[in-house]
Amino acid sequence: MKAFIENLPKAELHLHIEGSFEPALMFEIAKRNTIKIPYNSVEEIEEAYKFDCLQDFLNIYYQGASVLTTEQDFYDLTYNYLQKCANQNVRHTEIMFDPQTHTERGIAFETVIKGISKACDDAQEKLNVSSLLIMSYLRHLSEDDAFKTLNQSLPFKNKITAVGLDSSEKGNPPSKFKRVFEASVKEGYIPVAHAGEEGSADYVWEAIDILGIKRIDHGNNSLQDEKLVKEIIKRDMALTVCPLSNTALQVVDNLKDHPLKKMMDLGLKVTINSDDPAYFGGQVNKNYLEIQKSLDLTKKELYTLAKNSFKYSFLNESKKQQYLNELETYYNYKK
Ligand code: HPA
Ligand code: ZN
Prior knowledge:
binds zinc ion, 52% helix, 4-stranded parallel β-sheet, alpha/beta, 5-stranded parallel β-sheet, TIM Barrel
């Protein structure tokens, strides 16, 4: 099963680039920028990466991201993640980045986007991994702030495919960002949002009805509402589920109690993703492997999950078909 998962062609649809920041690279970048970080060793970092809830994690995640300063830093961060994709047979990835985490500290939007997108271009050429970018608004900040970010992004519109909504969910409902999502869609960005991770099913309703999102990030709490589940199925929307993130942030107590299989059995379209792999104990293949073991998933179910990852990506139809054919060939040979 391990080899089947490792070689399975797949896409990752829920990944925060700042959450892929590994301790070793963090030390290296902090050192070259002569920035002090509050850890002396990788062991101290691992000790600090124990979380009670989303906010607990976010505090440490923003602190980690604060050493990223130059275009080269953003390039190195992104290329490091894309190399991991290549090693795991992640054929395509849709990368979220949080501009406000950096612009708030005085880093130019241009620095962030140029570093990240250059790494994506190089990875396509050298690693044969395709990618696209999702610009995420921080929901703990104001809608005006998100508008500022939208405006800063416009000169780089051709490098960005979608907009997302992340950070502290409770108390920051999707409706707070109604106008900026409308404006983002007018600019041609595809809308997605985190919803139902810690927030209730009502937040998922708002995300689909008010923001008009095309894909739901997490969405676990949709299961609280039967009518909502039916609606998500009717609209053929996928959920980007992140098993190891869910246990790390105590959204789910134990992987054995994870609702992923239940979601699939209900008819929801589910994908498997790593969210913030440097913080939650594993890249995407580890997420596949751990959830497979915990829920006793079959090869057919793993194939369905990988198929969803391409089908519900934002690639054009011909590229999607190309990857789906690759997956089909693999599955027919290995099942
Ligand atoms: N939820 C909300 N915001 C985030 C996350 C998450 O899992 N990861 C990074 N920002
Ligand atoms: Zn996330």
